Amino acid sequence: MSAVSSLRTAAAVTTAKVTAVVSRRLGFGGGTALPGLVADAVSPGLAIRLAARLGHGSVLITGTNGKTTTARLARNIAQAAGYWPVHNHSGSNLMRGITACLVEATDARGQLTQPDRRLGVFEVDEATLPEAAEALSPRVVAFTNLFRDQLDRYGEVDSVAAVWRQALATLPSSITVVLNADDPSVAGLADACRGPVLFYAVSDASCAVYEIEHAADARWCPACGREYSYSAVFYGHVGHWVCPGCGRARPAADVQAIKVEQSPDHPLRLALSTPSGEIDLSLPLIGLYNAYNALAAVGVGLALGVPADAIRTGAASFTAAFGRQERMTVRGREVQTILAKNPAGLNQVLRAISAEEGTKNLLFLLNDDIADGRDISWIWDVDFEMLAGQATLVLASGRRAADMALRLKYADIGAHPVIEEDTESALEMALALTPEGERLYVVPTYTAMLKVRKLLARWGRRPPFWEED
Amino acid sequence: MEADLRLAHLYPKLMNLYGDRGNILCLRRRCQQRGIALTVDELELGDTLDPNAYDLIFMGGAQDREQRRVAEDLLETKAEALHQAVAEGVVLLAVCGGYQLLGRYYRPAAGEELAGVGIFDAWTEHPGADVKRFIGNVVVRWQGGTLVGFENHGGRTYLEPGARPLATVISGFGNNGRDGSEGAMQGENAFGTYLHGSLLPKNPRFADHLIAQALKRRHSEVALSPLDDALEERAHAEAVGLAKKKLGFLRR
Fold it and tell me: Most exposed of A56, A202, B10, B157 (fewest Cβ within 10 Å)?
C-alpha cells in the first residue's frame, strides 16, 4: 500500500471512530452506520482495504428472514473454533454498517489487532449482496430464505433473486455457497454457483403444517411454470417440494435436521446429521424458522472447516440477539420481544406464540419508516386468524397503530384492541395491564423494535444494544 | 328472504402481491355482519368463468412474471365471460396489476406488449426500468369523501374517452402522475384502481358501495344496515392525516 493511501485509510478510520463516539454522546444511537458513511466519504473503498486485512477472509449471510440470528450463531461457532470474528452484531447490514464495524475493529492507524485470527462474519442486506460480495471477497456466502419483504424498497421478489444470481455468477469458484434446500427460490440459486454448494434442510416431517400459508411466494417452477407439489410444508413455501412438470425437486441436503423438538417454554432442540457426524443442539429460541437459522449457521461452520465439537460449543454459548426473541423480566412481568417485519416472519412468530400455553397478552407495533417498509399492506397477508380467541390483552401501537388494530379486529384476536401510537406509552400500558407473573409478548417491526429495546433496556437494566456483544 | 351474493376471485394464488386478500376478508365480513351469505369461488389458470354465476368479481395484482401468464389465460379462458358479466351489471373490482390487464393493453419496459381484456377503455405503458416506480401512500377524492391506500406500480395508465377516472389524486401519483386521475370506471359497475393497502378494509364506504350495487342487481332491494366502523374510520382518518402532514411538509 502506498504511503498516501495508508495515510488516507488512517484518516478515514480516525474520523469514523470520532463520529461513532460523538453519535453515541449526542444520543443519536449506537453509531452503527454513520461512522461508515463518514469513513467512506473520507476514503472511498475503505471497506475493501480493511476487509483485505482479515486473515481468514469473511462470511456473508443474506436472505429475507433470519440473517441476524444466523450470523450471530455463526459468529459464536467461529469463536469456538478459535477465530476472532469481526461481526456487525447490531444488525446494521448495509455497506455503511459493515464499514463501521470494520472500523471499530481497527486501531487508530487502521491496523487490525491480531489480523491472522480475524474472520469477518457479516449479515448483508439482500440488495447489498452484490456490492458486499465485491468489496469483501468472501470465503463463504450463506442464504436463508426468500420472501416478499419491503416491496416498496426491493421491488419484486423475482428481482431480488435475479440480483443474487448475478452476484453469485461473479464470485470465484473457490467460494462455498450455503443454500436452503427446502426453499425452492434459494435452492435454485445452485445453478448460478460456480464452486461448491452445501445444502441444508429439515427432514423431520413431523413438524410440518399441511396447508400453504398465504405468505407463500414461490409456488411455481421457474423452469416449466407448473405449481410445486409438497409432501410437507414447514412454513410459507418452505418444505419438501417437487415440480410435477419437469421433476425439479428439493436437492439432497448435506446438513439435515433429522429431529426437531419444540415445546412451550423449552428451547429448540435439534438433532442434525452432518458430514462431520451427528450434532445435537439446544437453542434458547422458539419457532421452526429458527431451526433453519441454526442449520444455516452450522452449514457456515462446516464450510469453514470447523469441527463438530466447536460447533456444539459455539451453539451452546448462543444467546438471542436484541429484540429478536430475548426474554427479560420487567416490573414483575416476563417480556418477550420478537421482531417480525414481513408476512412469512410474522406468521412464524404467531405460530410460535400460539403454541405456548394459556391466554396471551400481546402488543403489536407497526411502523412504516423506510427501514420497516413504507407499505403496510403486508399485514393483510399474515394469518393473524390463528390467534383468534387466544388473547386476553391486545394492544396496537406504532405509526400505523390503527391499521394494525383494524387487522386484529378482522382476525378476532381481541374484541377491542387498545390503540396507542406512542411506543413508550403503549409499552407502559401493556406492562400495567399484563397481570403480574404473566408473560407479555411484544411484536414490533424493525424501527419499533429499536425503540422497544431501548426502553426495556432502561427499565430492565440491560445495556444498550451497541454495547452488547 | 335471506340475501346472498356470489363472488369470483380471479387468480388468488397468482395475483396476491400486496395484501389483496384483505379485500376479500372485508367483503366477507361486511356481508356476514348483515346476514348476507357471501360465497367465494377461486378461479385460477385454466378455470372458466361462468358469466351468469356471479354478482361480484375481484382481481388483485402480481409480479411481471405472473402477470404474463395471467394475461394469456385471461384472453384464453375468461375474457369473453368478463365482458358479458360486466355488460350485465356484475360488479367488478380490479386492483393494480389486475386493473392493468383488464385495460386494452400493457406495454412493458422490455419484451412484448401484453394484450388486455379491454374492459376498461384504458392502456398502460411502463416507461422503462430506469424510470422511478410510483410508490407511496395515496389519498384520492371520491364521491365527496376520500379513499386511502398505498400504490406501487411502474406502469403508467392513460384513460381513453370510454372510461372515466374513479377518483382524483389529493396526494400520491394515481394513474400516471400527470393528469391527477386515479383508477377507472367503465359504466357504473366496473372499477379499476392502483390502491392497495388493503383497499376495502380502510375504505368501508367504498366496500359498501360495491356490496350495495351487487345486492341491488341480484335482489333489487338494498338496505345495508350500518356497522360499527369506528376503527375503520380511525385507520382511514390517520392515513389521510399522514398524507396531509406530508403535503404540509412539501409546501413549507
Answer: A56
Residue B222 has pLDDT above 80, yes or no: no
The interface residues of chain B toward chain A in range 76-115, judged by CB-CB distance below 8 A, are: none
- Topology adopted by domain A58-87+115-316: UDP-N-acetylmuramoyl-L-alanine:D-glutamate ligase (3.40.1190)
Residue B193 pLDDT > 80, yes or no?
Answer: yes
Whether B9 is catalytic: no
**pLDDT per residue as tens digits for the range B2-41:** 789 999 999 998 888 778 899 999 999 999 999 999 999 9
Of A2-6, A170-174, A426-430, B44-48, the range with the lowest mean pLDDT is: A2-6
Query: Is the CATH code 3.40.50.1820 the one for domain B4-251?
Result: no
B26 is catalytic: no
Residue B143 above 90 pLDDT?
yes
Of B96, B126, B153, B236, the active-site residue reads B96
Residue B213's contacts (CB-CB under 8 Å, 6 or more residues apart) are B91, B188, B189
**Average pLDDT value for residue range A429-451:** 94
Report the residue of A375, A376, A395 to disrupt the B interface, i.e. the one with the largest count of B CBs within 10 Å: A375
Domain with CATH 3.40.1190.10 in chain A: 58-87+115-316
Q: What is the CA radius of gyration of chain A?
A: 22
Chain B residue with minimal CA distance to A343? B19
Closest CA to B7 of B36, B35, B34, B33: B36
List of chain B residues whose C-beta atoms are within 8 Å of the C-beta of residue A152? 135-136, 150, 152
Residue B28 forms contact with A (CB below 8 Å): no
**Whether A381 contacts chain B with CB within 8 A:** yes
| B199: nearest CA partner in chain A | A377
Burial class (CB in 10 A: 0-12, 13-18, 19+), A85: buried
Q: How confident is the model at residue A264 (pLDDT cuts 50, 70, 90)?
A: low
